Amino acid sequence: MTKLTRRNFLAASASVAAASTVATTNAFAATAAPAATGAGLKFEIEKGATLRVLRWKRFVQGDEDLWNANVKKFTEKTGVAVRTDSEGWEDLRPKAAVAANVGSGPDIVMSWFDDPQQYPTKLIDLTDLATSLGSRLGGWYDVCRKYGTKDGKWIALPVGVVGNALVYRESQVKAAGFDAVPKDTAGFLKMCQALKAKNTPVGFALGKAVGDANNWAHWLLWSHGGKLVDKKGAVAINSPETRAALEYAKQLYATFIPGTLSWQDPSNNKAYLDGQISMTANGISVYYAAKNSTDPKMQEMAKDTQHAHFPIGPAGKPTELMQITQMMIFKHTKFPNAAKAFVQFMFEPEQYNPWMEASIGYVSQSLKAYEKNAIWTSDPKATVYRDSAALMIDHGHEGPLGQASAACMADYVVVDMVAEAASGSKTVQQAIDRAAERAKRFYKA
Fold it and tell me: What PROSITE patterns does the entry give (predicted)?
């Protein structure tokens, strides 16, 4: 198989030299019968249908366990054999692009951010399914609607949001002289400086971390009023607001543990659980790992762990980016009805509620009815993540979502700019100029 690089993915319209096709196994005999999917739409399952699903590797064991249990339920109910392949977060995106360009491979992909906007013509229209689910389950959050639609049609269904929040050691924050995390960026910087002075530094990812680096770097830019592009999609990164954000980043970076420039998504989990840092930005997976450990030291860490929203910056409003994941069905599938039945099945309360509960809210809801799930109140430490979809901004921000925004995200334009300026490898203006030049290759006037 030809090695697919991140650059190959960015050229979404280019031809793919080669790709391997993985054979689908059929461990169960599929039969032609309507899928029993509760009160939702009824789909006539194709005879002999099998499905291959590509999704991201779990960070929380409960997520994977309940996912597999739900897959088994679907097979038992419909006779459709489903194979789930899990890939690392960074590897999922290019593999989905291969499937889109070659026209073969997985039937369903759980993708990141606006990946479906890269190849909307390759995807099955899911408007009927989105309308049915929305009408029965409280409606979709606005940000989910923006991510999932193109030209008025649903091209993907947001499964949920891997919420991102500040994860911190309460005892260490108090030892640094703060009762809680400050709600403004000026106070937040002072707290991080105080934590560093106490030899309990913080750490935020600045490497090729699909979730953690993108999430906090975009918050940093937006919190100061900066933006990559304007409403028309014109590159607007060269601004006083961006310069202010990067000057702030330089001060904040001085409080970091060494090594964050190479951190990927698992790195800050490990650093926090090893006791190397007092604070990071992450999903609830860090707390989950500590809480479910049999190690007494980890249990104590779980008790000491708290979560908080990011502070408000000069922009004067919440400016958080979080990791949305979407289910899309490729037109190359031989079994579109089975695929749509599967997607609907996973959204139904009988499957979705236990899935959220088993992962203690690692993936928060995209449909408003699931705000009522007891997981958000039974453990107060999970409550911060409940409002992820209601709070977050899509990464296009003021600009449109599409091939350009997806490419800039995949190329880490904002993350690299913050990393270069914060670390001093480039001046603030040099970092901005390079980001602008890179962005203009995708946002063409």
Answer: TAT
